[in-house]
Amino acid sequence: MDRDWSDPELDLDAVAAHAGYSRFHFVRAFKAVYGETPGQYLSRRRIERAEEMLRTADLSVTEICMLVGFSSLGTFSTRFKQQTGLTPSAYRSKNVGRGAALIPGCYALLYAGGFPGRERHRRADS
Questions:
Q1: Alpha-helix runs per DSSP H in 57-101
Q2: Can you list the pairs that 116-123 forms with residues at least 24 positions away whose Cβ atoms lie under 8 Å?
Q3: 3-60: per-residue pLDDT in tens?
Q4: How far, rounded to the nearest angstrom, does the alpha carbon of residue 106 sit from its chain's CA centroid?
Q5: Is-contact 69 46, C-beta < 8 A?
Q6: Phi-psi category of 59—alpha, beta or left, where left has phi over 0 and alpha has psi -120 to 50?
Q7: Are 51 and 8 in contact (CB under 8 A)?
Q8: Nearest Cα residue to 10 out of 41, 48, 49
Q9: pLDDT value at position 126?
Q10: β-pair partners for 58
């Protein structure tokens, strides 16, 4: 989960199978150890990464939403506000300008490896 957190198709069944558990046992064991479900953990990790990108990259909120693994802007915005108390746009407004200039979006995308899923499509075409 920590390696593939940005993959919007990250599948709980596959993660549980990789750990050697059934889906339901994995959720119970994960929550007992981490204090949150795998879905909550993954969402929190994605929002933390989005916070960093909102502070540092000159990308739209929609682009950041997709880069961190959310497929719905509405879900991303709701979860972001639940975790930070601010909408993504308000978070950016509050935190930009306190340090260095924003990294141009093209460089941020290059560093992030482009949009998730696009590489799979390119490989399939080869």
A1: 61-67, 73-84, 88-95
A2: 116/6, 116/7, 116/8, 116/66, 116/67, 116/69, 117/8, 117/9
A3: 888 787 788 888 898 889 999 999 999 999 999 999 999 999 999 999 999 988 888 9
A4: 18
A5: yes
A6: beta
A7: no
A8: 41
A9: 43
A10: 104
Question: What distance lies between CA 104 and its chain's CA centroid?
Answer: 20
- Position 31: which residue type? K
Please tell me the pTM assigned to this model: 0.74
Query: pLDDT tens digits for 62-105?
Result: 999 999 999 899 999 999 999 999 999 999 998 876 655 566 66
DSSP state of 70: -
d(CA 122, CA 108): 20
Identify which of 78, 74, 84 has the alpha carbon closest to the alpha carbon of residue 54. 84
Tokens of 85: 């108390």
